[in-house]
Amino acid sequence: MLKRASLVLSILILTALAAAQDQDYGRFDISVAAAAGLSKQSTGNSVTLHPTQGWGALVSGRVRFGSRSAVEFDYSRVRNTQKFDAPPFFYNFNTSVREYSGVYVYTLFKTEKWEPFLLGGLGAISFYPKITYLNGVQTLYTSVNQRELAYIYGGGADYHAWKRVYVRAQYRGLIYKAPDFQYSNLFTGAHGHLAEPSVGLAFRF
Predict the structure, then answer these.
(1) The domain 2-204 is classified under which CATH number: 1.10.10.650, 2.40.440.10, 2.40.10.340, 2.40.160.20?
(2) What's phi and psi for 10, nearest 5 deg?
(3) HSE (CB half, 13 Å, CA atoms) of 157?
(4) Tens of pLDDT along the chain (205 residues)?
(5) H or E segment at 197?
(6) Which residues contact 21 (CB under 8 A, 6 or more apart)?
(7) What angle do CA 161, 165, 170 make, to 5 degrees?
(8) Burial (CB count within 10 angstroms: exposed 0-12, middle 13-18, buried 19+), residue 27
(9) CA–CA separation, 30 vs 11, rounded Å?
(10) Dmax of the chain from CA atoms?
(11) What are the phi and psi torsion angles at 36 (to 5°)?
(12) Phi-psi region for residue 16, left (φ > 0), alpha (ψ -120 to 50) or beta?
């Protein structure tokens, strides 16, 4: 599935770049934002995964190829703890969660100051466990990095603050298969959800 997602993103990239070269209204911007990582609980197979909430950063590059259409490429990173209840065992994985994605962005309307937008696309969400605890005790178990396909949706708005500088506030939701770090007793078969509200600055050129 990740190969298919890569193919779709490659087609979007080529289409956006070709269209931007042919149009006078082609624009680019780069944004940096502070983001929250708010994860929901997942349950299945008598296992409950309830990640803690975390904070991180979101970096994006956007290519406009129409008055309302754009393609955006994103990288985000948050840290949290993936906590599994699989009685009689309880696992905590201190984890770095990273997103690599591409989305289509549609601008609803434009005023002198505001540009609200919707977005949707695909990407990969990667889990990098750093430290593993079993029943509250740090272990020497080797935890496996895990990558899953993510479906992305959301929306937000740009506020024109000064010249080429915009304030961007947005909400992004990622839906993906809940990780198990290849522990057979931690497989839930459920989907996870990561909400990423963020606020930052976009620099347009």
Answers:
(1) 2.40.160.20
(2) -65, -40
(3) 12
(4) 555 555 555 555 555 455 444 444 448 999 999 999 999 999 999 999 999 999 999 999 999 988 899 999 999 999 999 999 999 999 999 999 999 999 999 999 999 999 999 999 999 999 999 889 999 999 877 788 999 999 999 999 999 999 899 999 999 999 999 999 989 899 999 999 999 999 999 999 8
(5) strand 191-204
(6) none
(7) 80
(8) middle
(9) 21
(10) 63
(11) -95, 150
(12) alpha
Which of 179, 53, 81 has its CA nearest to residue 138? 81
| Domain assignments of the chain as residue spans, ordered by start | 2-204
Q: Which residues contact 3 (CB under 8 A, 6 or more apart)?
A: none
Distance CA(153)–CA(175), nearest Å, equals 9
168-185 b/e with 16+ CB inside 10 Å = b?
bebebbbbbbbbbbebee
One-letter amino acid at 172 equals R
